[in-house]
């Protein structure tokens, strides 16, 4: 619905390429996260998109968290997350000298990517392959029929296709719910966006060297 590409969630995310240790083994999210991260890095290298495999430490601060950390490590190994390590305090300090904890998972394949640049590049790829990227197309109705899906914009334009993939950010659940006519999503399968508020802080230039990598708590 925006007038430009990549101005909402793509621009306002943390820019993380996650490695895939959080998701239930065997799930689509686990498989797609691991495979998707590998493909994303390859794509960024081919297209010259800014990215950095900065890695991530998931740090346990006590014995209870350490147990959960080890379970998370086992899950990550089952999901075949590349390069995952369960590290000691000494190894943790080598990676991030100022961090405090009793142990950590080191994920060297976690990285940071300029996702706005990725979105712009994807749009250019679509156009190069003969597709069309329509900005300012706010979807107000989605009609599911035997021959496919038709979406209608607020100003009356329509697009029809055999299949519809929604990447509508915070509006994804609303768009998906529009397609619950016969042949659409089952009511039980309707996704729901659960918003939460995060806080980001920017270090002063003289303190930037205090942190080398990304540091996360045990979930």
Automatic annotation (TrEMBL):
<keyword id="KW-0560">Oxidoreductase</keyword>
<keyword id="KW-0285">Flavoprotein</keyword>
<dbReference type="InterPro" id="IPR036188">
    <property type="entry name" value="FAD/NAD-bd_sf"/>
</dbReference>
<comment type="similarity">
    <text>Belongs to the L2HGDH family.</text>
</comment>
<dbReference type="InterPro" id="IPR006076">
    <property type="entry name" value="FAD-dep_OxRdtase"/>
</dbReference>
<feature type="domain" description="FAD dependent oxidoreductase">
    <location>
        <begin position="6"/>
        <end position="219"/>
    </location>
</feature>
<protein>
    <recommendedName>
        <fullName>L-2-hydroxyglutarate dehydrogenase, mitochondrial</fullName>
        <ecNumber>1.1.99.2</ecNumber>
    </recommendedName>
</protein>
<feature type="compositionally biased region" description="Low complexity">
    <location>
        <begin position="7"/>
        <end position="17"/>
    </location>
</feature>
<feature type="region of interest" description="Disordered">
    <location>
        <begin position="1"/>
        <end position="21"/>
    </location>
</feature>
<dbReference type="GO" id="GO:0047545">
    <property type="term" value="F:(S)-2-hydroxyglutarate dehydrogenase activity"/>
</dbReference>
<keyword id="KW-0274">FAD</keyword>
<dbReference type="Pfam" id="PF01266">
    <property type="entry name" value="DAO"/>
</dbReference>
């Amino acid at each position: 619905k925006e007038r430009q590409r990549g101005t909402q969630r793509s621009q306002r995310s943390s820019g993380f390429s996650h490695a895939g240790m959080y998701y239930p083994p065997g799930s689509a999210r686990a498989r797609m996260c691991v495979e998707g991260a590998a493909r994303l890095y390859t794509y960024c290298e081919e297209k010259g998109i800014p990215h950095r495999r900065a890695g991530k430490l998931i740090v346990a601060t006590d014995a209870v968290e350490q147990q959960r950390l080890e379970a998370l490590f086992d899950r990550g190994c089952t999901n075949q997350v590349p390069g995952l390590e369960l590290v000691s305090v000494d190894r943790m300090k080598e990676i991030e000298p100022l961090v405090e904890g009793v142990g950590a998972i080191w994920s060297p394949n976690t990285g940071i990517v300029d996702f706005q640049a990725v979105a712009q590049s994807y749009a250019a790829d679509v156009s190069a392959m003969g597709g069309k990227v329509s900005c300012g197309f706010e979807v107000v109705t989605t009609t599911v029929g035997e021959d496919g899906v038709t979406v209608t914009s607020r100003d009356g334009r329509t697009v029809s296709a055999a299949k519809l993939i929604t990447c509508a950010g915070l509006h994804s659940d609303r768009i998906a719910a529009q397609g619950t006519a016969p042949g659409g999503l089952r009511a039980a399968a309707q996704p729901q966006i659960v918003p939460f508020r995060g806080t980001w802080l920017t270090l002063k230039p003289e303190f930037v060297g205090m942190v080398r990598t990304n540091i996360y708590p045990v979930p």
